[in-house]
Amino acid sequence: MNDLSSPVAAKTTECDVLVVGGGINGCGIARDLAGRGFRVVLCEKDDLAAHTSSSSTKLIHGGLRYLEYYEFSLVRKALQEREVLLKSAPHIMWPLRFVMPHDPSMRPAWMVRMGLFLYDHLAKREVLPGSRTVDLRQHKAGQPLKPQYKRGFVYSDGWVDDARLVVLNAVDARARGAQILTRTRCTAVQRDATGWTATLDGPDGIRTVRARAVVNAAGPWAESFLRNTAKAAKGEALATKSLRLVKGSHIVVKRIFDHDHAYIFQNPDKRIIFAIPYQDDYTLIGTTDVEIGADDPGAARISPEEIDYLCAQASRYFEKPVVPADVVWTYSGVRPLLDDASGDPSAVTRDYLLEANTAAAPLLSVWGGKITTFRKLAEDAADEVGRMLGDARPAWTEGAFLAGGDLSGWIGAPTRPDEDFERFVAAVQKRHAWLPAPLARRLAHAYGARITDVLGDATALADLGVEVAPGLHDAELRYLYAQEWVRTADDALWRRSKLGLRYTPRERAAVARWFDDQNDERQTDAIDPRAHHQEGGRADVAP
Q1: Do 285 and 275 touch, CB atoms closer than 8 A?
Q2: Quick one: which of 102, 126, 140, 190 has the fewest CB in 10 Å?
Q3: Are the C-beta atoms of 541 and 481 separated by less than 8 Å?
Q4: Phi and psi of 532, rounded to 5°?
Q5: Whole-angstrom Cα distance, residue 209 to residue 195?
């Protein structure tokens, strides 16, 4: 297959499957299909995880509140996936204990205990401890709360760096032969009896892709993709289902509490919000449920009313009120939920539906889903694609590591994901004693076993090159540019990392200038490949 990542590559290619959408579902499906030996091309109109998949509450969880809506199948499916995911990438996921302060005016204690009993037993647990009741007057989690909250319930779920999860799936997909095209929009795709002809518009111009099947994993744009971009054999738009687009917004404030537990708070409107330890020095609070129109899901932003809501609900529980002036960062994502005619956006199912269309060349559309179930969704989707193509191939991702997740070369046989990661950090610090401890931990979290690729042959901090911003060196930026599709400061500072939270405007501007220089160099090399800069050799290794 042609190398579509090269500026001088041919403008056409053939593949088995074209995946449209570079969020968690699209990248997970591309990885699974590529691992089964299918020829895969994935296109994403922006950066990987640029929208919904970097804007979640960042939890690997079964969804305790979904039990009230009798979503037992969804909760069980998600609970089964928690430990599968924790074991696959212990550098970007880890167990997290949650505290629910009991408010008798919300739900009676017996109902909460019954829900937690189900939560503990709907799926097998090997790593995560079960739930228990605690005295908040004695427990560390009670200290930041108002004194009327005397009793609480503690249970287990997990935390994930959602944007890096997407990238690790894309990295693994590419390692298995998939072509990953970012900033490349599918402007048209025409169906005939034997395949699809797609027009892709990207940084290197227009190209044509001929695919045996198409997977529509466009998330909030999945419905509009079928209505406006994909055409049937006679040129008409394809019939489609309807999505409900629900905006979920979050706020980040300076750290409210010092312990390592998170909180789940019940609200008078019967919704819940989370308050989660975040990036060491911060607390993440969210989320909201606000239904929006379909005009431009990518433009979703938090409203003043949502900020007030999250502050007010958190302040019902914390002794020190949370006020809008405390907010240091916000983000919003749009959940593409399958329209089930529910009047309450909070009650719309978070389960996924895979819609197969074999009226001519195969088409698979992905509706809904949540980040916790992405691997199972991708496995089911790959099974369905194989069936539609008449070429079923075995599943493989359960038990497989994500990129950088196999730490055995550093620590030997794995035991528990959280303990394994701490042993890994110790091993990194021992092998690279010259790395400052905070930098060693951050790089270990971001790259796992791939940290060696980032550090290269460095034996001293100076070997990492210029410190473009505090703790961010030229060597890491070059790696991100060459291996993780990073092209802008926002890619690096808000998706591949959250360093943007810590940097001043001047420091963020320095990172932006670095990328301006690299992109100018790449454009020069695309015009004249002989003119590429030998220093770093980046122009001809960009993904």
Answers
A1: yes
A2: 126
A3: no
A4: -70, 145
A5: 10
CB distance 82 to 128 below 8 Å: yes
Strand partners, 202: 205
Tell me which amino acid residue 272 is.
I
Interhelix angle 24-35/374-388, nearest 10 degrees: 50
- What pLDDT is stored for residue 348 in this prediction? 63
Q: What are phi and psi of 491, to 5 degrees?
A: -55, -50
> C-alpha angle 134/135/140, rounded to 5°?
85
Q: Tell me if 17 sits within 8 A of 176, measured CB to CB.
A: no
Q: Measuring CA to CA, which residue among 154, 165, 131 is closest to residue 372?
A: 165
- Look at residues 63, 61, 62, 69 and name the one whose alpha carbon lies nearest to residue 343: 69
In one-letter notation, the amino acid at residue 23 is G
Report the sign of the C-alpha dihedral through residues 58, 496, 300, 276, in that order: positive
The structure tokens 């529509």 sit at: 216
In degrees and rounded to multiples of 5, residue 103 shows phi and psi of -115, 105
Q: In the numeric block, which tokens belong to residue 428?
A: 């990194």
| Inter-axis angle of helices 417-431 and 437-447, nearest 10 | 130
Pairing of the two strands 363-368 and 205-216: parallel
pLDDT digits (tens, 9 = 90+) for 355-399: 999 999 999 999 988 899 999 999 999 999 999 999 999 999 999
**What are the residues facing 211 on neighbouring strands?**
15, 196
**Under a CB-based contact definition with an 8 Å cutoff, are residues 352 and 26 in contact?**
no
Supply the pLDDT for residue 68.
80
Helix spans in 316-455 (H) = 374-388, 408-411, 417-431, 437-447, 451-455
Q: Read off the tokens for 94.
A: 């880890």
Count of CA atoms in the C-beta half-sphere (13 A) of 484: 27
| Of 122, 60, 130, 132, the residue nearest 95 (C-alpha) | 60
Q: Which residues contact 424 (CB under 8 A, 6 or more apart)?
A: 90, 91, 407, 410, 411, 444, 448, 449
pLDDT band with cut points at 50, 70 and 90 for residue 104: confident
Query: Between the CA of residue 442 and those of 56, 215, 428, 445, 497, what are the distances in Å?
Result: 21, 35, 11, 5, 9
Q: What is the pLDDT of residues 39-96, one digit of tens each?
A: 999 999 999 999 999 999 999 998 888 888 778 888 998 999 999 999 999 999 999 9
> Residue 188 forms beta bridges with which residues?
199
CB 9 within 8 A of CB 179: no
Report the alpha-carbon angle 89-93-99, nearest 5: 155
Q: Quick one: which of 536, 539, 498 has its CA closest to 519?
A: 539
Beta bridge partners of 280: none
Task: Check residue 480 and give left, alpha or beta (phi > 0: left; psi -120 to 50: alpha).
Answer: alpha
- Bond from prior residue into 488 cis (ω within 30 degrees of 0): no
C-alpha dist (Å) from residue 137 to 134, 150, 281, 530: 9, 6, 25, 70
Determine how β-strand 185-191 pairs with β-strand 230-231. parallel
What length does the chain have?
543
Q: Which amino acid is at 451?
A: I
Q: Tell me whether residue 343 is exposed, middle or buried, using C-beta atoms within 10 angstroms of its C-beta: 0 to 12, 13 to 18, 19 or more.
A: exposed
